[in-house]
User: What shape does this take?
Amino acid sequence: MKKPLIRTAKTAGFCFGVKRALEMVMKALESGKKVYCLGPIIHNRYVLEDLSGHGVRFIENVEDAVDGILIIRSHGVGRDVYEKIESLGIEYADATCPRVRKIQMLAEKLGSSGYELILAGNAEHPEIKGIIGHATGPVFVADTSDELIELTEKRIKDSNCGIALAAQTTYSPDIWKKSVNYLKRVYTNLQFFDTICRVTVDRQAEAKQIALRSQLMLVIGGRDSSNTRKLSDACMPICRTVLLENEDELSNIDFDGITEVGITAGASAPEAIIKKVGVKMSEILNSTEEMSFEEMLEQSFKTIYNGEKVRGVVTAIAPTEIAVDVGTKHAGYVPLNELTDVPG
Ligand code: F3S
Assistant: This one.
């Protein structure tokens, strides 16, 4: 009988934006002050329950945070929210992901340059609402490729402004590419800004590669997480795909005849849950892998020691820091005051 095989995506788990947001919450907790998050800081109920256990309070109104530190979540918020926070003199930490911030700034700039903005994404998602809250001109949102094309054609007919298109950071790279390719062929006067997060692109590409070699693909993450759902949508046409939030849900899955399984996870899925799913699945399949799931997971990441010189790729630039991918599980951050262009 063929040995059951489990392949785990190297890109599974927290992205640098989520990790950064959680670090800000932990730092705020260390101050001993009350810590408030405006809405769920990330879309994963286990992480939220854990933070609640540490005393973090999730609120919907800025006014409720006057006696503590308010954390703005990674999805970002509109300009009006900053104005309210400042008018009330509330202490806050801004965990808006630098990649989301970039789109907010784009929306500001396009409006003041006389452009309308069409966003590819989910109009109800907090990231999109936050971007709209920074726009200085008209913004329209469409989700599917058909809707995006139809909306763009309508705006071309009805509008006298320039038209620019950008996407939610977790938008499907395939749908974006398909829509843009069509629009570029037919219209020459549109501006396109591919603002899909590189993490999303890489994660989906790797998940699809693994799905091609698997009979079953497990996607771990919150059901309300946009990037987790998009990951699952990307694998679904390739092989049987199941979205699950934790290892207990494995008991609902039929593993009959399955010998090759792929695992990936959304950007807000904690490593502990990814490990638990892998371990439990190994038990179910009675996997005879030469390496344990933990060993495979650990081995897929480079270890860096203090004092070691490393080469990295700058993946994001924010006004106060840069994010650098150095091949480890988590992105590195270099604060502005530690950056230098002096060799050595
Ligand atoms: Fe940011 Fe990309 Fe994560 S936009 S929050 S790094 S998925």
Residues 15-18, 74, 97, 99-100, 169-170, 197, 199-200, 227, 267 surround FE3-S4 cluster (CB under 6 Å).
